[in-house]
Amino acid sequence: MTYFVEKKSVVREIWGKGDTVLFIFAGASAEFALNKAVDWLYYTGKLPADPLKRLFSTITYARQIVFSEKKEALRAIDKITAIHSAVETSRGATIPDWAYRDVLFMLIYYSITSFELMERKLTLQEKEDVYNVFYRLGNRMGLKEL
Length: 146
What we know:
The protein is mainly α. The chain has helices spanning 10-15, 18-32, 39-43, 46-49, 51-67, 70-91, 97-118, 124-140. It is built from eight helices and no strands. Helix 2 runs antiparallel to helix 7 (97-118) and helix 7 runs antiparallel to helix 8 (124-140).
């Protein structure tokens, strides 16, 4: 069996701890709210209507990507991409590439920082592993200039 995130990857350790995951989302959500392009997230009304449901939906996708076999993880990434495309089509405007990159970089940063605050310092190799997993995720989503 092949996985999108290898079984021995520190990313599985990071995203396998509930406290760390909540810390990641707390930091990324706070920073994300300052992003100039977040209007697209509010376009559907799902976030303001039920922020906890939106949080757990996002965590579900993250867990599918991190812990599933590669084919299932790629399907989850493709579904995320399709959801974003549908929002872009519906609102008649694209989400800027820099906004996607900002979110990707937030997830990298807060994955590392949250784990280091809650658990232990990561080695350079482990930090590179985190980066590489999110790079592959962004690449699969078709993000430019990674």
